[in-house]
């Protein structure tokens, strides 16, 4: 069973409906880190101890308690092939960390892939909920409800003073990492992005680019998340993030309007050129395709292009990643071949058959 | 604020290192941090923040210092998982939840620098939470008890003692 349902489709079902502010906010993600009492953290756990963690946690989400959140399926990482792991990472369903080091590693996924429960990652348990658009509050409500189900079934490592005890000191307390993925092309084009990102840093949030080797923002997509997990309540963390992201959306909107007023011709030309290149190019590197897909997304939002839909663009963002291309066109692709197949995929999706 | 290494990208990592009481602030971007071998969490390589943390913990200088306190910190280890303080400061990660107890004396400054705070105010697990609330109540009553004994109010003291006993019996056990 090497071909999994989870790795066949580029776009998880949860991504298909937009959510609020979906022209700028791609998704909202909530992650809660928890550990079991008495067992060493995955870093030091023996193979037997990791198995024990899995034995304690796995049944919780296959029982009746979890029925409200859909049907769940458990995947053991050591039973997946490398390519499936890569695709799960590209879809943000598991972390690169879990894919790399899978001593007792497992993930429990629901059908629409909006809930992903990682076992034996850096912590024994990491509950992750994904929502389209700006829905941090909704994502928290779901994540904490899932946390409650686990909490009723197992004993968490918890300390009166330090809160939920985690492997890394940066997660202790709430164990909560709330993040929002935003597309900010106009702020990048108008050179305001640095000023805004450093302001974001000053209110206890961090920003990083997504995809791409390293953390460079590919395709003008940024991930904004809380840095502080100790000494703030979960709702403070979430409201802070929500309010900052709302302000960023406002800035991005203003920048888009200004672009249309000040340089309509230039921006129209850029967007249409990108469309042309994506629809006709024979070779396409990941970095360029991400940038040009970003132009298309902006073009659709500004009314300069009629299509493709945001959902098709989201799908292309995932399908153009190396793992997914290999899934579609063959296991062993050289990087040149990947660039060629990426171009072919883009041509076929965006209209031209040449 | 721009990165102090390259001066081009915005600084997204801000941390303070204290060596022998001298404070140095760093403001660098993620790519420079990565070049310096200090990777960012969640990105490829992923070990990132842990090396930054070990910078914060600064074991080297603590060990070389002659102060007794530094020597004592050096000698700490977790009796549950066996992790030594030296390992903890290198890895920037705890080995088990008991490490928090054994390294407790060193954690306040670390948490203050990372989070600006040292105590949890968020969610409580339901079962352990009830126990914590109960414990807090008992502690308060015990203080009252002390006071009433000092003030020779023995009737009140007896009453308080009974309430404490009752609470201790009722305290939810895990
Ligand atoms: Zn730099
Ligand atoms: Zn330990």
TrEMBL record, chain A:
GO BP, sorted A to Z: phosphocreatine biosynthetic process
Domain of life: Bacteria
Activity regulation, per record: Appears to be allosterically activated by the binding of pArg-containing polypeptides to the pArg-binding pocket localized in the C-terminal domain of McsB.
Record-linked Pfam families: ATP-gua_Ptrans (PF00217)
Motif position, RDXXRA motif of the pArg binding pocket involved in allosteric regulation: 338-343
EC number(s) on file: 2.7.14.1
Sequence intervals crossing the membrane: none
Gene Ontology CC annotations of this record: extracellular space
Domain Phosphagen kinase C-terminal intervals: 24-255
Keywords: Allosteric enzyme, ATP-binding, Kinase, Nucleotide-binding, Transferase
Coiled-coil parts of chain: none
InterPro entries tied to this protein: Arg_Kinase, ATP-guanido_PTrfase, ATP-guanido_PTrfase_AS, ATP-guanido_PTrfase_cat, Gln_synth/guanido_kin_cat_dom
NCBIfam families associated with the record: PRK01059.1-4, PRK01059.1-5
HAMAP family from the UniProt entry: Prot_Arg_kinase
Protein name: Protein-arginine kinase
UniProtKB/TrEMBL annotation, chain B:
GO biological process: stress response to cadmium ion; stress response to copper ion
Domain UVR: from-to ranges: 135-170
InterPro entries referenced in this protein's UniProt entry, alphabetically: UVR_dom (IPR001943), UVR_dom_sf (IPR036876), YacH (IPR025542)
A Pfam family that the UniProt record links to this protein: UVR
GO MF annotation terms: cadmium ion binding; cobalt ion binding; copper ion binding; zinc ion binding
PROSITE patterns in the cross-refs: UVR (PS50151)
Protein name stated in the entry: UVR domain-containing protein
